[in-house]
Amino acid sequence: MQTVPDNSDVILARGQGKPGFLWTERTDKSHSENSRISQSPAPDSSCNATDFSSIYSKHLLPHPDGEKMSRAFLQELVRTLLAYVAKTFDRSSKVLDFHHPHQLKEGLEGFNLELPDQPENLEQLLVDCRDTLKYGVKTGHPRFFNQLSSGLDIIGLAGEWLTSTANTNMFTFEISPVFILMEETVLRKMQEKVGWTDEEGDGIFCPGGSMSNLYSLLLARYNLYPEVKMTGMSNLPRMALFTSEHSHYSIKKAAQVIGIGVKNVFVVKCDERGKMIPVELESSIMRAKTAGCVPFYVNATAGTTVYGAFDPLHDIADICSKHGLWMHVDAAWGGGLLMSKRHRGKLRGIQRASSVTWNPHKMMGVPLQCAALLVRQKGLLQECNQLGAEYLFQPDKQYDVSYDTGDKGIQCGRHVDVFKLWLMWKAKGSEGFGSQVNRCLENAEYLFNSLSERADFELVLKNKPEHSNVCFWYIPPSLRGISPGAERDTRLHEVAPKIKAKMMEEGSVMIGYQPTREKVNFFRCVFSNPATRKEDVDFLLDEIVRLGCGL
Ligand code: ABU
Fold first, then answer.
1. pLDDT tens-digit series, residues 306-334
2. pTM for the model
3. Which atom of ligand 1 lies closest to the CA of 524?
4. What would the pLDDT profile of 257-296 be if each residue is shown by its tens digit?
5. Distance 148 CA to ligand 1 centre (A)
6. Which segments within 366-408 are labelled E, that is strand?
7. In sequence order, what DSSP letters do the residues of 80-131 get, joined into one string?
8. Which of 445, 449, 209 shows the shortest CA–CA distance to 343?
9. Which residue from 304, 305, 369 has its CB within 8 A of the most atoms of ligand 1, so it is best to mutate?
10. What is the C-alpha separation between 149 and 139, in angstroms, rounded?
11. Which of 2, 187, 311, 403 is 20 to 30 Å from 98 at the Cα level?
12. What is d(CA 192, CA 328) in angstroms, rounded to the nearest whole number?
């Protein structure tokens, strides 16, 4: 692939580029000059070269003569964005250009985070836009393995651009007629993938999986004690919920937020692969009852954050049915596997859930953010959350007001997260998403097999990964002769953070690490970026060895 020029080259290229925009050196205009410009007509951008150094935002639309200049400014910005997109996929470019917080705050090469009292010119703004990208992290780079959400899908990006251009809100059909119907279509399709019938299924897009999990707790509590909506917790018994030791911390956080309390979250033991043990769930429920609590909710995880484990959903559903408990499945990470014929069986039993969290911004590679809460019982979200603000949800509008879906949520303003997913689904079809998921899991298997054959690495889990998480230690030569025990553990604990620090400073690759309760720091590699190939996996291991062999 052609190497994309770095920022300084981009400056040069502008003068030579087809649209003929001429990049000029930044000049700081005095404030008095600035106010003089405000009284003058909008500068003309019809000539080939645009000098933005004396142009200000007030010259753009809605200035009566602002259309040409607005177009010129946005085209210039798009050139910067396109250069960044190309660079993101270029393996010879860095994943990040790391600077410490104090360095960024002090200002770098004219990049200043402080906000002025007087307007700055558009040239400065374009420089700021370029610098913002330059000092950020290319999460779409094929060698970014750090987070569950990664990749840069071009159709998804187009969807995000369109969404920002439309700049509307998801509370009423009145102002989002198309997006509201798209949300209905996409949620229905996701509910089908979960396995719910046409008579079942509701949902809402939320700002992330933690919020979806919080919604699920609100629904479960309301379902059992509808009076909570009006009278709060004061007359309710001590309620208990259950989640595994490998589940996401947002379950505890949600319990804290809604007034259940973290102490009333019973943490259920997992097996060595990180899956909830059903008999442990059963005994936790009995323990909670003995302690005088009312169990009401179980969170099962489909794709845990660190190990990528899938809890046994049918077994958990049986226990929930037996005790009359709400079953939530946190499939924020694992939900994407429902798109793959090869892997969807790992979520067998999910159709028995009362609610499901599924984040397409993770395994399906939709640009952040795109996260859905799906609810089996129709109408419950609305019942639980609606307050019917009269200025917004007037019942006497001329259209079917059941499409004013905003009152299902706990937010008022809600971002349009659906369009980019809808557009990507059109572009790929369900099968395209399935192949994308399959490729990510093939990369995980390739890494797992490579690690199994090497003496300088140790796998945390010996079984083939179920999801795309692969957890491992790098054992530097200095530790290879030391037998397992406290001394080795203490030293091994320091290896991953040291390698990660060097990695970030060099910017060549990014991977996360963490300890668990019984294991010292280990690397977690996750694959959700369709741009990643086997050569990137090889590169990752070579890089870890290069940076860590002297430790
Ligand atoms: N549950 C938020 C994602 C965390 C991660 O990317 O590792």
1. 999 999 999 999 999 999 999 999 999 99
2. 0.92
3. 7
4. 999 999 999 999 999 999 999 999 999 999 999 999 999 9
5. 5
6. 371-375
7. HHHHHHHHHT-TTS-SB----HHHHHH-BTTB--SPPSS---HHHHHHHHHH
8. 445
9. 305
10. 8
11. 2
12. 17
